[in-house]
Amino acid sequence: MRDIKEFREKLLGAKVVDIDEVQKVIYLEDETKRVYAVNHTNEGLMVNRFPTKEEEFIELKVLVNLLLQKLDIDEDELWDLYC
């Protein structure tokens, strides 16, 4: 979580996509479909930035490739198992 000052310009004009009244969090979405959670803490307004779907996909792809490397498995071997 970071101070809202770091994201102020990015959040101005962002669309409100949800409000959690219990946790007192406002969720915003910018033009790139990135979601931000803004909540009030003892340190003031703080922002949590979530990855976009594209970033999540890339991260997952990297993790799978690293796992294949670690297990010493060739991707073609996996496709042979699948077929």
Short characterization:
By secondary structure, the chain is α+β, with helices and mostly antiparallel strands. 36% of the residues lie in helices and 31% in strands.
Describe this structure in words.
The chain has 83 residues and is α+β, with helices and mostly antiparallel strands. 36% of the residues lie in helices and 31% in strands. It contains three helices and five strands. It has helices at 8-11, 53-70, 75-82; strands at 2-3, 15-20, 25-29, 35-41, 44-49. Strands 1-5-4-3-2 form a five-stranded antiparallel β-sheet, with no helix packed on it. Strand 4 (35-41) and strand 5 form a beta hairpin. The chain is elongated and about 50 Å long.
Topology:
Blueprint: E1 2-3, H1 8-11, E2 15-20, E3 25-29, E4 35-41, E5 44-49, H2 53-70, H3 75-82
Antiparallel strand pairs: 1-5, 2-3, 3-4, 4-5
Which keywords apply here?
elongated; 3 helices; 36% helix; 5-stranded antiparallel sheet; 5 strands; alpha+beta
Adjacency order of strands in the biggest sheet: 1-5-4-3-2
Number of strands: 5
- Order of helices and strands, N to C? EHEEEEHH
Structural class: alpha+beta
Give the overall shape.
elongated
Distance from first to last alpha carbon: 44 Å
Rg, Cα atoms, Å? 19 Å
Strand content: 25-35%
Q: Flag low-confidence runs.
A: none
Largest sheet: 5 strands, antiparallel
Compute the average pLDDT: 93
Number of helices: 3
Portion of residues in helices? 25-40%
